[in-house]
Amino acid sequence: MLKRLLLTLLMLTASAQAAATDYTDIWFNPSEAGWGMNLVQSDAFMFLTFFIYGADSKPTWFTGQVTLDASNNFNGTLFATNGTYYILPWAGFTGAAAGTASFQPLTPYTARLVYTVNGVGTVTKTIQRQTLKLIPLGAMYSGAQSFAFSGCVNNFSSVSFFNLQITHFTNGTATFAIDYPEYSCTFSGTLEQHGQLYSVPATQAQCTDGSNPSVVMTELKATAQGVEGKFTASYGGSCRNDAQFSAVQR
Predict the structure, then answer these.
(1) Whole domain around residue 153: which residue ranges?
(2) Could you tell me if 144 and 55 lie in one domain?
(3) In this structure, are 89 and 102 located in the same domain?
(4) Taking the CB of residue 233, how many other CB atoms lie within 10 A of it?
(5) Are 138 and 213 in the same domain?
(6) Are residues 96 and 122 in the same domain?
(7) Element containing residue 3 per DSSP (H, E)
(8) Mind spelling out the 3-state secondary structure of 5-41?
(9) 174-232 pLDDT per residue, tens
(10) Does the predicted model carry a pTM greater than 0.85?
(11) Half-sphere exposure of 15 (CA within 13 A, CB side)
């Protein structure tokens, strides 16, 4: 009964929430090491902290509070603050609006950062998620997915349950063995890490129903409870299956 309840909750999560990208991560420009931005997303709101430098080349503290708009960008205010010297008892801080900030997603893994400070000028940077360390994925999982077929002879949307075994190898590749109630599929590919997320470029699956689609995985993420992500399975021509899933570790 408990397992059925957990899988039902996972099904609802996959269908209602997993379609949106969570941009929470550390972001930087790899060709400009030494500065960056911490981003924490809460639904349609982001809190940004910049670690950058002033005209005197000394560290400068800015924060941004930005909200999702109709163009799928996050726009808002840049703030400058001053506070108590860290070695003293905390006596508060002062702060005021210092400009504007805009986080503009280009892909789930890259973005354009645009900000202004005190009218001095506009800074525009292309940034990406910063990978800190390898995040292991290998485990057994049980979960649910919501999916939709398009461009096929028979198009439909539904949900399904599955068991998943991920084998994460030291050479950066992984094997995914998925057991559905009606059939099973296995495929292997190279894990490309983007900060907290992984992607797997197109790879051929072997399925017991003979369909053997080409599979691309995106936004694959280890969570505190298990794993979640998205994938597209292409069956030739324009026929494809787009899905998002969530699973708990067994």
Answers:
(1) 2-20+133-249
(2) no
(3) yes
(4) 22
(5) yes
(6) yes
(7) helix 2-16
(8) HHHHHHHHHHHHCCCCCCCCEEEECCCCCCCEEEEEE
(9) 999 999 999 999 999 999 999 999 999 999 999 999 999 999 999 999 999 999 999 99
(10) yes
(11) 15
